[in-house]
Each structure stands twice: as C-alpha cells, then as structure tokens.
Amino acid sequence: MDLGRQTRVRQAFDTFFGAPEPASGHHVLELFHRTAEAVPAYRKFLREHGIDPASVTTMADFARLPLTDKAGYHRKYPLPELCRGGAFDGLDMIAVSSGSSGHPTIWPRALEDELHVARRFETVLVDAFEADRRRTLAVVCFPLGTWVGGLFTTACVRHLAAKGCPITVVAPGNNKAEILRVLPELAPHFEQVVLLGYPPFVKDVVDTGLAGGLDWPAYAIKLVLAGEVFSEQWRELVAARAGIAEPVRDIASLYGTADAGVLGTETPVSASIRRFFAGRPELAREVFGDARLPTLVQYDPASRFFEVHDGTLVFTADGGIPLIRYHIADDGGLLPHAELLGYCARHGFTPPPGPELPFVYVFGRSLFTVSFFGANVYPENVTVGLEQPGISDTVTGKFVIESTEDADRDRRLRITVETAPGATADAAAIAAAVRSQLLRLNSEFAHYVPAERQLPDVVLRPAGDPEYFPVGVKHRYTRPA
Asked: DSSP secondary-structure letter at 408?
C-alpha cells in the first residue's frame, strides 16, 4: 500500500475543491527542475544537449531549452523512463493517442492529472452551462476504450459531480444507436443535456435523431466538442437542428490532446470573438495571419504554459509524463487578453464578460493539409462548402482531400464526400460550392491554382464506407499524395 500516494491524491482533491491558483513563471521553473531531477529520460535529454539544470534560473533561460516532441523524446526513450522515478508507480490509467498522425502513442496518467483537466471542463460546464445549479445529464459520445477521449472525459465530468455539481454521466461512447436509445429515457429527468463528442459525429447524432422524430429542443441541448476545427456556419446549422437558442454560450469547443488532456476551452468570450471574425476575413487575416478561421480558446497559464515556435505551438505541462517545452506541432499562436479585446473594441465589437485569461488560437496540425499547385488546402475551407444550403442536408460532413494524378500525370484535387443515409447528393453542386469557398477563404488557392484546375473532382461514397469512412475510428480528412 502506497500511503504517499494517498496523501498526494488527497492534496490534489483539496486543491481541486479550492480556488484556482494564480499563474506565475515560478511554477514553470519549478516543474522543469522537478522533471530534470525525477524523470530519467529528461535527465538524459538535457545531458545529451549539454545542459546543466542548475543553470536554468530564469524564464529567459527556460526559453532557450531545446524543444521536446514525440519523435525526439517520447519515442526515443523507454516508456517507464519518461515517468517520474522511471516507473509506472502511482500511474493508474493508460491512454492511447487517436493516431491521427498515423502512429498511436501511449500516455500513462494518474487521477491527479485528471483533476487538472477537470478544471477545464468546469470552465465550460459550470461557468457557461450553469451545471453547478442545473440538473445536467452529460452524454459522453467520444469513443470508449484505450483511446483518450471517452474515458478521460467521463472521469473529468464525474470529478465535477464529486465536487458537488448535480451532474449525472452516461457513456454510450460513439454508439449512435445506444445514444438515441438512452436519451429519450433519461433526458426528461434533467433540466439540460450535454452531448460531448467529435463535431461530425455529434452532428450525425443530431441529424439521425431529428429524422427519427426526436424532440431536441425539449431536452435543452448543450454541446462540448473537441478534436476538429469547425466553422461558425456549422455552429449555426447544428444549433438550429438541435434547438439551441444561444450557440455562442451553449456550444463550446475544447482544445485537447492525448499528450496533456484539455489545453484550453472555448468560452462565450472567445466564441463571440470568433463569430465576429467569421464575417470579416480581412480582420481575421490581420489578427491570425490567415483568413481561415482557427479554433479560439482561452487557457490557464497556471495549468498549461504556452509558447510559439515558428508559427506552431509549444506547451509545458505536468502529467503522468511531464512535458517540458513540448512541440505539439499545431499551427497557431497566442494573444494576450487585453490585446485581443482592445483590437475588437477598436473595430466596434464588445464581447460578453468572461474570464480574463489569455487566448490561444489553433488551425490544426500542419500535416492535416494537402498541397495543390503549391497552395495548402485546409479541411476548414472545404467544410464551409459542404455547409451551404441544399448541400448540408445531403452529406454527413465527413470528407477526404487528396491531391492525385490523372492519366496524363496532371494534378487533380479530389474530395471524397460521405453522403447522409437515405439522401441523394449532387457531386457537381458540391464541387462548385467547395470551389467558391476555397476562392473566398484561401488566398493561396485563388492565386496559385490555375482557374481550369480550381474545380475539385468530387466522389460520393455511402455513409460508413469501409475504405474512406470506417465506423468507430477517428476520421482523417486528408491522405498523402
């Protein structure tokens, strides 16, 4: 029996039940020194780079430390050596990454790590959805099993219930039939229902329920989404179908990774700002460096410390595997709270009140793009094309982008689209809508791709197609050439 573990867990719960700790640079340096002392892999990593941990005494010293990543750190050393003491002692759960980069990765964690992430769920469920005083049914629609989403989410929401929130969790996972079976039975006993899952799957649940006569507005639906960037048109579309009157407040996106759980959360502040930029691509380009719309969330520097390296995000966070200056490889950047709100004010927009936390914006992994005539084609741009009137009802929202060669070895942009069950989609209309949105939102595409090559080849496949849209695994929106 590890009595020391009992003490650590009790202390973690005491911290979780108390007020959030203020952010400071000191906790980052403390985490670095604890990791350098206790984690064998990180000691070796520093030694291989000729770094004496004692020489790192300021945040300027910290900013000069070499970056870690999956290839050069996580996969380089034996798994136990990545953990404190070189062992799994005190790590009671194993999660596996979703494998969106093509190689699943193992992430041990402890209950104490979940409590850090539970505070991020608290930002959404309590601060925005008022789940501290409204009887709430949380329906976990992420895949269950070794993959990180389902079990991690279930645990974190249950911790909020243990804190005193009147939340009850049901976890059918990504089993659509089971979700739609339990909802009519359970939902009438609660004041609101929160669906937590990946955006295209949650949309599919809403659409299927609607087709089956489910009265979504009667359930006071809220959505917590993660894993993918979605457009504001998508938010409006799903809100209308689910009977959500306040999509800015009642639909929240999480910025999460298997590496460190939830890194940031959409708030009514960030969602309303994103909505403001959605109709103003020229302002979005000025702020985000790109006209396409990123996920915009707020983060707590006391829990997850962010930096930017060459236009990509780096974070430092404690966990079962402590990560120091970890290069997550997500394209994005950081914006101070006062700076972004000041910019909005200068352009005539005042967001609703909310937490005075900094913002991180995320376009997604750079590997989630397809290069076509030198232009990066992003899934976010194609998504908007599929959400146009007359198209959105005929497709599920899933697609795969490929840059292919035809018989004459000319490059073609091919988009394979999943049709909605029982619907008839128009490939020509989809191609025209996607081209229109690519030209509007993607200046590279408009300028780099010859006009005669801008119309994509659209291929329609049925829902659940095993080659392109297999059921039960995380969807990938691109394929390499």
From this structure: T
